[in-house]
Amino acid sequence: MQPSDPENRHAVISAYLAQLSAELADCDAALRHDALIDAEVHLRAAVQAGASPQRAIDDFGSPEEVARAFREVEGAPPVPVTTGTVPATADAPATCHSAAPHSTGAAGADARGPARPRGFAALPIVGVWARPTAWGALLYFGIVGFALAMAYFVWSITIGSIAFGLLPTLLGLPLFVALLGSARALCLFEGRVVESLLGVRMPRRTQPMEVANDIGFWQRIWCWLRDTRSWLSLAYLIGNFPVSVAAFAATVTLVAFGTSLLITPVVSLLGYPMMTFEIGNAPLSMAAGIAVLTATLWFVTALGWVYGHVVQAIQVARPEPIRRHKTPPFNPTPSLQPNEGTVHAAHH
Amino acid sequence: MERDLSVGTAWLVVLAVIAKSDEPIHGYEIGRRLSDEAPTGLSFKQGTLYPMLRAMESEGLVRSSLTPSTEGPARKCYVLTAEGRRVLAAWVNTWRCASRWLNRIIGGSHATE
């Protein structure tokens, strides 16, 4: 089989991507997703421009080199941009550039997940009060997430009901396809919100569905319909609502309960006696209030981690791309030999 | 002996390549231009470009947009932001000062090797 054969080109690129994925196996799923898309789009562009798959891979770098670059650049503090110094190597920050805050989200999501807590935030149990992810999660589950979940639910159920009702006519199917498209877009938006507030890194772009460039309109529609991410997104928008209601109710109840325990002695001292409160219980009440609020922050942090990774899992789902040519079965653990038409890891 | 291009100088040259482009430029094209102009003995692996571009975008130095391609999936194309131009100008100035200083220091026969 010659390297110019489209099937073999695809097999060579797929084998390279499998190796790159293995090199990034211990990294965040969104980082791995981004790295694979970048590599795939680049290698296909190189091959389309006339390079052989082997040449394209040699120029691109071995899986080890590319994985190392992603780890170094995305996992390390970025080069400062506010000074006039020439950027230094990412692995020698102490001598070449000062520390700079990472700006990939308010909660500090990066390739290795949220930034490691420092100072007071590193303390066990009470450190949660100083963690941005905890306050972001409280904001998300207390206000933002509930409002968004309600809007998603109303939109999905309304458009879905109309689309199903119109299925006997010609309008039903395009409306349903539009609903799937909107579900994908809303889920991407949700990902940005989740990344900002919950600190879980989301992929920077989605997996391209089409590899062939001459697929038709109906093939694209079919591609959308059979894409796992479309259905997962729609399921999330609908299924998220009852979960968000429960999370909202639990969060608001806990915050209200903890706050009431904390402020009751103060209110009582100000001359507004509470029916069930005795002033002698003030220290106990305030301690219980702080304990409940601390537990609440841990609760929303844990829930936020789960939520974030559910949304991330939806967004990194890989669709089966449409191709013009049938491809050989993909071998997830290819044997890479330096023969013609296969990949060999270039060690320099 | 073949050596990798320093990650640090790569930030500078990548910004410069984007700045020189008249229109939004995608990652493959940036990598191709860098590889074409790399001197003998200095390798540049194009795959190392993408994490750099993401980091630059996070820092607000470049802005990206997806551009439909007639040769496959949509490509992410990059342009410099105003902040990117400001930072590039500062870095270029620093680089030239450092380069002159370095040439004076190493001077003599080492400078021509």
- Bin the strand percentage of chain A: under 5%
What is the CATH topology descriptor of chain B? Arc Repressor Mutant, subunit A
Instruction: Report the oligomer.
Output: heterodimer
Outline of chain B: globular
Low-pLDDT windows of residues of chain A: 88-113, 324-348
Q: How do the helices and strands line up, and which of them pair or pack?
A:
The complex is a heterodimer of chains A (348) and B (113).
Chain A (H helix, E strand, L loop, with lengths): L5 H18 L5 H20 L4 H8 L2 H13 L17 H4 L12 E2 L2 E2 L17 H34 L6 H27 L18 H9 L2 H42 L12 H34 L33
Chain B lengths: L2 E2 L2 H14 L4 E2 H11 L4 E2 L5 H10 L3 E8 L2 E9 L1 H25 L1 H5 L1
Parallel strand pairs in B: 1-3
Antiparallel strand pairs in B: 2-5, 4-5
Helix pairs in contact in B: 1-4
Structure notes:
- The complex is a heterodimer of chains A (348) and B (113).
- Chain A is mainly alpha-helical and 348 residues long.
- Chain A folds into two domains: 1-79 and 339-348, no CATH class; 121-315, no CATH class.
- Chain A is built from ten helices and two strands, in the order αααααββααααα.
- Chain A has helices at 6-23, 29-48, 53-60, 63-75, 93-96, 132-165, 172-198, 217-225, 228-269, 282-315; strands spanning 109-110, 113-114.
- A two-stranded antiparallel ribbon of chain A has the order 1-2.
- Chain A is flat and about 85 Å long.
- Chain B has one domain (3-112): Arc Repressor Mutant, subunit A (Orthogonal Bundle).
- Chain B is built from five helices and five strands.
- Chain B has a three-stranded antiparallel β-sheet. Chain B has a two-stranded parallel ribbon with strand order 1-3.
- The two termini of chain B are 13 Å apart.
- At the A-B interface, α2 and α4 of A face α1, α2, α3, β5 and α4 of B.
